[in-house]
Design goal:
Blueprint (H helix, E strand, L loop, with lengths): L49 H12 L14 H18 L22 H4 L3 H29 L7 H21 L6 H15 L4 H12 L10 H17 L11 H10 L16
Length: 280
């Protein structure tokens, strides 16, 4: 079922004794369908201060039900509230904020918010969790933008050099997602991050999505650490498909950049075993 077809469950409340405001807006397509242009912090300024935090918190608190459904009510009130908070954040900040609630449990990078059932409690606590999650998402996007710039092949790169940069970028970005805390479905975030990187280098979004899908080829599995050899293999397949050249194999020619990458992008992954990256 698509996001457009999805509808919130009917509430079981008596609105004469427990009134609720009407739903704000219908659901919208997932962040998974956005391009990097719609997320890039450079294109979407974000001004945050105490006044803005107070304003957003006040808006959220207004939509927290005075009585929660809990397990007996199948979390209907909490789910309803979570959708209203999502609408508030999307309306206020735009497309880039759409991933604010993509939690670790569902393969995202957010630890401050899970679902309505888990995160909607009192008005103050709910607002604090939503604010923390929004800032967590923005920080993730800003770090990604910096990382994309650091990993991008230079304009004057030869095909062999470009292949090397693309392979290294793939390895680093997959490792970054593994280290984010993403759990079930982490491979979706990994594929998106790789796709956004290629788009940031000027590649057509549809072409970037196809290239990443072909390189991964279903080899990354939910709740499973792929290990360094598979991560490297996906990176090499992506680089070769896009350049027709194998990544440069003599790491001594790239020693300074290798060392920078190892300092900047240390990896642990789902299993907690040291860096996924291998030295060439």
């Amino acid at each position: 079922m698509s996001a457009e077809e999805w509808e919130s469950p009917a509430l079981a409340y008596n609105r004469d004794t427990l009134p609720f405001p009407e739903n704000r807006v219908p659901p919208v397509p997932s962040v998974r369908r956005l391009t990097w242009d719609e997320l890039d912090p450079a294109r979407h300024p974000f001004v945050w201060d105490e006044d803005e935090e107070a304003a957003l918190s006040a808006l959220i608190r207004e939509w927290v039900p005075p009585v929660l459904s809990g397990m007996d009510g199948w979390w209907q009130g909490e789910s309803w509230c979570a959708h209203q908070v999502d609408a508030i954040i999307r309306e206020r900040y735009g497309s880039w904020a759409r991933g604010w609630n993509w939690c670790h449990r569902h393969g995202g990078v957010i630890g401050s918010w899970v679902t309505g059932a888990d995160s909607v409690t009192t008005p103050d606590e709910t607002a604090a969790r939503a604010v923390a999650a929004l800032l967590e998402w923005r920080a993730w996007l800003e770090r990604l933008a910096e990382t994309f710039e650091e990993l991008a092949p230079p304009p004057e790169a030869s095909p062999e050099e470009r292949s090397w940069h693309l392979e290294r970028a793939s390895v680093r970005l997959v490792t970054r997602v593994l280290d984010s805390g993403a759990e079930g479905g982490w491979q979706g975030m990994a594929a998106l991050t790789m796709t956004w990187f290629l788009i940031s280098t000027g590649m057509d979004p549809a072409e970037a999505e196809r290239a990443v899908e072909t390189a991964i080829g279903g080899r990354f599995k939910s709740w499973t650490d792929p290990g360094s050899m598979l991560i490297d293999s996906v990176g090499e397949d992506l680089a070769v498909a896009l350049t027709g050249r194998l990544p440069y194999q003599d790491h001594r020619e790239r020693a300074a950049l290798e060392e920078f990458h190892d300092r900047a992008f240390p990896g642990r992954g789902l299993s907690g075993r040291g860096s996924h990256d291998r030295r060439r």
